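4.2 Preliminary Data

To establish feasibility before requesting continued support, the project team ran the inverse folding procedure on a target of 230 residues. The structure was first converted into the token representation described in Section 3, and no sequence information of any kind was made available to the design step. The complete token record follows.
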């Protein structure tokens, strides 16, 4: 699909359309998402597959004043301390992946009007993660399971289901590992037990029109390079 023809402001009519139009949204309208829509998305997402039907997820949907307070607390933590995720964030990547990651960062900074040498501006842009990029609702995915490869796959299935179901409703999303960076802040704010690990989250809301950031689509490798048929 030609990215110039893609609209992120309308409901996706098919799974294919949801896949082709979904991309990370980093600027949102203040308009709140009705509770019935959020209920519909995440109740359906509970149908996601998991290892032996283990369903290793809990889902915490935060809007309104609670969301505002949490954004302030997370932003403060990010300014004053280093991330302390409960999962090991990857540090080693193959060289081709490193190049894609570097190129992506430079392209996003370019679209955002940030000079690559301007560390202060880059840091401010990173802090937007903890303000949920202005989205009216933040979602945190937690688990009491011992974390392993297959639990990660299960959580990924749930996350992808949520992203596509949100597109079906005409909403934008941004999945964020950063929302698992300060688990104690989230646990304390939401009253979660210590054994409930804060893994990751997503921002969700109505995409802001006429946003250059929202027009940006992350490039993908060609099918010829990644698919093999036998």
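Position-by-position output of the design step:
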């Amino acid at each position: 699909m030609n990215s110039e023809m893609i609209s992120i402001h309308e409901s996706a009519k098919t799974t294919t359309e949801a896949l082709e139009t979904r991309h990370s949204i980093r600027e949102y309208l203040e308009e709140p998402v009705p509770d019935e829509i959020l209920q519909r998305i995440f109740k359906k997402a509970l149908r996601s597959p998991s290892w032996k039907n283990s369903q290793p997820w809990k889902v915490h949907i935060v809007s309104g004043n609670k969301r505002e307070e949490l954004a302030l607390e997370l932003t403060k933590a990010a300014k004053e301390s280093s991330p302390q995720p409960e999962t090991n964030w990857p540090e080693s990547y193959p060289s081709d992946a490193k190049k894609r990651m570097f190129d992506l960062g430079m392209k996003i900074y370019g679209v955002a009007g940030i000079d690559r040498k301007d560390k202060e501006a880059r840091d401010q842009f990173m802090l937007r993660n903890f303000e949920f990029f202005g989205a009216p609702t933040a979602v945190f995915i937690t688990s009491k399971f011992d974390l392993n490869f297959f639990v990660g796959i299960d959580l990924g299935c749930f996350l992808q289901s949520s992203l596509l179901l949100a597109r079906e409703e005409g909403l934008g999303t941004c999945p964020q590992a950063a929302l698992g960076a300060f688990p104690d802040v989230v646990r304390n704010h939401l009253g979660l037990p210590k054994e409930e690990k804060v893994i990751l989250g997503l921002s969700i809301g109505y995409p802001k029109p006429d946003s250059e950031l929202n027009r940006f689509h992350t490039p993908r490798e060609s099918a010829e390079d990644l698919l093999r048929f036998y």
